[in-house]
């Protein structure tokens, strides 16, 4: 037997992009891992890259736009059966550019309350919960 393999753990930034009270969700393509699941666009943080640099790079690669970051949500770690992901979500608006899909199967703009109707990558569910509770309806729990 070979050496014990450490479980794969990826660190991923993602953008909760808001426009006119709607939020952008992106559907992973059939050929990606987690095929056809919905996610917030973004991707793995490269060595020597900050979260913000990663987010801008990934959003440019995937959607062809730049974003303005308004706030950071707490990171969330999720264990899938074959790997672990830590998500670093940022609330953003579009800064420059028109969206062109380079990797995703589809995008949609939804009212925040409707986000939960999509078939999300499992790691995103607590992110959406925190977003709704602390950023969309911050007064409702007081
Ligand atoms: N961008 C993004 N990735 C997410 C989210 N939720 C979630 O579980 N992930 C997972 C899917 C991927 O395994 C990983 C992000 O990797 P990536 O987007 O840079 O690269 P990839 O699809 O080519 O990933 P992989 O096939 O190499 O695993 O994080 C999310 O909301 N946004």
Look at the structure and name the CATH superfamily: Nucleoside Triphosphate Pyrophosphohydrolase
Distance between the termini: 56 Å
Strand-pairing-aware structural class? alpha+beta
Look at the structure and give the mean pLDDT: 95
Give the CATH class: Alpha Beta
Helix proportion range = 10-25%
Helix-strand pattern, N to C?
EEEEHEEEEH
Oligomer: single chain
Main β-sheet: number of strands, strand sense, barrel status?
8 strands, mixed
Gyration radius, in Å: 15 Å
Strand content: 35-45%
Question: What compounds sit in this structure?
Answer: 8-OXO-2'-deoxyguanosine-5'-triphosphate
> Outline, from the CA principal axes?
globular
- CATH topology-level name: Nucleoside Triphosphate Pyrophosphohydrolase
The tally of strands reads 8
* Spans where pLDDT lies below 50 across 5 or more residues: none
CATH architecture: Alpha-Beta Complex
Please tell me the total number of domains. 1
| Tally of alpha and pi helices | 2
Description:
With 142 residues, the chain is α+β, with helices and mostly antiparallel strands. The protein has one domain (9-136): Nucleoside Triphosphate Pyrophosphohydrolase, CATH 3.90.79.10. 18% of the residues lie in helices and 36% in strands. The protein contains 2 helices and 8 strands; from the N terminus they run E-E-E-E-H-E-E-E-E-H. It has helices spanning 51-63, 125-136; strands spanning 9-19, 22-27, 38-39, 42-44, 66-72, 76-79, 84-96, 106-110. Strands 1, 2, 3, 4, 5, 6, 7 and 8 form an 8-stranded mixed sheet that branches. The model has no long low-confidence stretch (mean pLDDT 95). The structure holds 8-OXO-2'-deoxyguanosine-5'-triphosphate (8DG). It holds the Pfam family NUDIX. It is an enzyme of class 3 (hydrolase). InterPro entries: MutT-like (IPR047127), Nudix_hydrolase (IPR020476), NUDIX_hydrolase-like_dom_sf (IPR015797), NUDIX_hydrolase_CS (IPR020084), NUDIX_hydrolase_dom (IPR000086).
């Amino acid at each position: 037997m070979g050496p014990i393999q450490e479980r794969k753990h990826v660190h991923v930034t993602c953008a909760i992009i808001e426009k006119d009270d709607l939020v952008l969700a992106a559907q992973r393509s059939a050929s990606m891992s987690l095929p056809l699941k919905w996610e917030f666009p973004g991707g793995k943080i490269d060595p020597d890259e900050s979260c913000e640099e990663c987010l801008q790079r990934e959003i440019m690669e995937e959607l062809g736009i730049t974003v303005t970051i308004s706030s950071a949500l707490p990171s969330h770690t999720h264990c899938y059966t074959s790997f672990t992901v830590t998500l670093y979500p940022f609330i953003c608006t579009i800064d420059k550019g028109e969206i062109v899909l380079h990797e995703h199967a589809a995008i949609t703009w939804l009212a925040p309350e409707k986000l939960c109707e999509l078939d999300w990558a499992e790691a995103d569910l607590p992110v959406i919960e925190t977003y709704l509770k602390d950023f969309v309806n911050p007064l409702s729990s007081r």
